Structures are given as C-alpha cells and as structure tokens.
UniProtKB/TrEMBL annotation:
UniProt-listed Pfam families: AAA_26 (PF13500), DRTGG (PF07085)
Residue intervals of the DRTGG domain: 214-319
InterPro entries on file: DRTGG, P-loop_NTPase, Phos_Acetyltrans/Butyryltrans, Ser_kin/Pase_Hpr-like_N_sf
Subunit structure, interactors included: Homohexamer.
Gene3D superfamilies according to UniProt: HprK N-terminal domain-like, P-loop containing nucleotide triphosphate hydrolases
Organism superkingdom: Bacteria
CDD domains referenced in this protein's UniProt entry, alphabetically: DTBS (cd03109)
Protein name: Cobyrinic acid a,c-diamide synthase family protein
Length: 354
C-alpha cells in the first residue's frame, strides 16, 4: 500500500488544489510515483461520456495521470444524490471509497487524497473528511486560509478529533503585515496544542487574479473594445462612484485594479483609462461615448459592459476574485512555486511514511 496524504481545509475555496498540485509536482520531482484521488466530488462534470469531478479531471491533467473517473471520485454529489441523502436514503459509500483507494494506491508510491469543501462537508451522508481520513487510516494536512482571521479554534478541535491522523496544518494567504502575529502568537499557540504548522503561504495577488475575458463571461457582460487584450489580468477592483479627485487618490494606490463605474460617468472612465487600469467595467448596460471608446482602443484597455448596477457587480466581483479557480498555466507554476518554497516537505514525507 502506498503512503497516503489527505489534503483538507477549514472551509471551501481555501487553496486545496494549489497545495495538492504543488505537493504532487514536488513529490514527482523527488522521484515518487504519485497517485491522486478525490473521494467525494461536488462538481459533476462530463468528459468523453464519463461523469467525474471537474477539479479531479483538472488536477489529473496537471499531474499527468489518467485513472478511471469512477475510481478517482467514487462519490459524486449530484442533485439526485442530495435529494436521496436528505430524505434519509443514504447508502454507506465508505466501502466504495476504501476499495477505490486500495486499488489506486496499489499502483503508486504515494497517494494524495483531496478533500471537498470543509472537513465536515458531506456529514449529512457520512462522507465527511473526518470519516474518510479515519477509515483510510492516512495522515491529514489541513489548510486554513486567512479570511478576516484564522480559524485557530477549529484547528485545535480538529486535533482533538483526528488525533495522530492530523499531520499538520498550512496557513494560507497570509499578508506581509500579518506575518509577525502568525510567527509570534498563532504558530506557538497551535504548536502548544499539538498542532504542527507545516507551512505558511504568503498572500500572492496573482493567485486571485482573473483574465478580463473570463471576468466578462462570469459577470454576464461583453468586451466591446480592445478585445485582443482580453487576456490582461485583473487582481482587484475599485468602484468609481466617488468624486474624481478622491477616485484618483485611491486609484494610484491600487494598480492592476479593474474599475467598476456607471456607463454615464465619462469623467471617471477617462481618469481610469489614462491611469493604465487593466479594464473598465461599465454598469447599467450603458455604452461609453466615442472619446472613451477611441482612448480605450489606443491604450489597449478593454471595456466590459454589464447589465447589473454597480453595487451588484461589485458583490459579484468580490465573489469571483475570492473563488477564482487556478486554471491558468502561469498560476499553476506560481502556485506550485509558492507551495514548494513555503512548506516543510521533509516533515510531510516523514509523517506520511515515505
């Protein structure tokens, strides 16, 4: 049987794929034959007539694996699955997960097993991360992504729950100004409670970035000028509802920010264009005037027109930038690099029994 490492998290969208790919690529580089499994898939996706999990297909592509979807993701959470589960007709899926794991791990040196959502997601049908880790008898690494604050209580409770199965935790998305607190207070607190911190990954704006073309699609809008520059990258956004002078002050501090502004505010649009923003998002389905359009073409700055009002677009933007999937090659490289330089691999290998 291969060594096994389960990668879970305290909440959804915490960076599991990034850590899994970084871990997998690094172990491959170290000469190990790496297998991959995501026992519970919450993103059903069809490929070549086979139903699997969208993330699982993607991670396999990156790691150069091609295992049968029903083995990689034995449990797929479809609408039908949920209806059955909530009506109390949940079968025991654990034997299918265990058997798939055994089969896959017999062909590899080490298995990287991906969690879905948080460690308690799937509890309604007894396929939560806690149970999966215990039944497979493997070591878990839990990611906690900083969102306003870290879930230190949750991590200590997980240690109580998982005991020796918890190999350690990774703190993700930590901004520079918070590093001292992490090193001076939070890390020592966790370690006193038996929770080993195996990595602290710094915040990297590129990891949350999205291309203009993808952004337009996600906002249900369309790129109406400088379409050939739709692959420019947006890392953040600013709302241009304020007075021009105030807007300029904010704008100077936030490079690579898309500017969301009413289609009728040509004063702010012009400032944003001349200030080299990656794209303009015009709300209220209003098209810009000819001067703005011409400048946009000359400066190679795409303009996206969307139906919604500014507030709605800003809320959507926030959700998109915090949950954007790691799909681009640049991001995969960057992510793998971040993981590689921030994580104690020797300890993880030792904990997994490699």
């Amino acid at each position: 049987m291969a060594a096994g490492i389960y990668v879970g998290s305290t909440s959804g969208y915490s960076g599991k794929n990034m850590v899994i790919m970084g871990l997998g690529l690094r172990l491959q580089k170290d000469g190990y034959d790496v297998g991959y499994m995501k026992p519970v898939g919450a993103m059903p996706h069809e490929r070549g007539g086979v139903l699997g999990d969208e993330d699982a297909f993607f991670v396999q592509d990156v790691l150069g694996l091609d295992e049968p979807a029903e083995k990689v993701t034995p449990v797929l959470v479809t609408q039908d699955f949920k209806v059955k589960a909530f009506s109390g007709q949940c079968e025991d899926y654990m034997p299918a997960i265990t058997s798939a794991y055994r089969d896959l791990s017999s062909r590899h040196d080490v298995m990287v097993v991906a969690g879905s959502g948080s460690m308690y997601s799937g509890r309604y049908c007894n396929v939560d991360g806690i149970r999966v880790v215990k039944e497979l008898g493997i070591k878990a690494i839990i990611i906690d992504r900083l969102h306003k604050e870290l879930n230190y209580d949750y991590l200590v409770v997980l240690k109580d729950t998982l005991g020796d199965n918890l190999a350690g935790v990774i703190l993700n998305d930590i901004p520079g100004n918070f590093m001292n607190e992490v090193d001076g207070l939070i890390k020592p607190f966790l370690e006193r409670n038996g929770v080993r911190v195996v990595g602290v990954i710094p915040k990297d704006p590129l990891m949350g970035a999205i291309k203009v073309g993808d952004l337009a699609e996600r906002l249900g809008g369309k790129v109406i000028s400088a379409q050939n520059k739709s692959d420019k990258v947006v890392e953040n956004f600013l709302i241009g509802t304020m007075q021009v002078e105030n807007f300029m002050t904010h704008f100077r501090k936030n490079k690579n920010s898309a500017v969301i502004v009413g289609g009728d505010r040509s004063d702010v649009q012009l400032v944003a264009l001349e200030g080299n923003c990656p794209c303009l998002v015009l709300t209220g389905n209003l098209y810009p005037n000819d001067i703005i359009l011409t400048r946009s073409e000359i400066l190679n700055t795409p303009i996206v027109v969307v139906r919604d009002d500014t507030y709605t677009v800003a809320k959507k933007m926030e959700a998109i930038l915090s949950r954007h999937k790691l799909r681009d090659v640049i991001k995969i490289r960057q992510g793998a690099q971040l993981v590689s330089s921030s994580i104690d691999f020797e300890y993880i290998k030792e904990a997994a029994g490699l």
